[in-house]
Design a protein that fits this description.
The chain is mainly alpha-helical. Helices cover about 80% and strands about 0% of the residues. It starts with a helix and ends in a 6-residue tail after the last helix.
């Protein structure tokens, strides 16, 4: 679980970097793609972990905690697609951030 806390901090720092760039008038090209790629996948892993902790009860229970994870997981899957697929975001990071040729 400590890994999730570290990942959440990374997500927060990515967001802060993008905000500081925008305040300076810079365009966060690949930085925004990194955040878009990282954050929804982190949310999906956290929701999946919640479902695993609850087991089958998390999928059929009506208690507030389990119902939250059961609703959250499908939404997190959709968020990895919305706003550009992960493959497109990876291509943006490769070409704009790392300077690799389009391939």
């Amino acid at each position: 679980m400590a890994d999730r806390a570290v990942e959440a901090e990374v997500s927060r720092f990515l967001s802060l970097r993008i905000l500081s760039m925008q305040e300076r008038g810079a365009v966060p090209n690949y930085e925004a793609s990194i955040a878009k790629l990282f954050t929804p996948e982190l949310n999906q892993r956290v929701a999946r972990t919640g479902l695993r902790i609850g087991g089958l009860a998390a999928q059929v229970s009506r208690t507030a905690m389990y119902a939250r994870w059961a609703r959250a997981y499908p939404q997190t899957v959709a968020s990895t697609i919305a706003g550009g697929t992960s493959e497109i975001q990876r291509n943006i990071i490769a070409t704009r951030g790392l300077g690799l040729p389009r391939g």
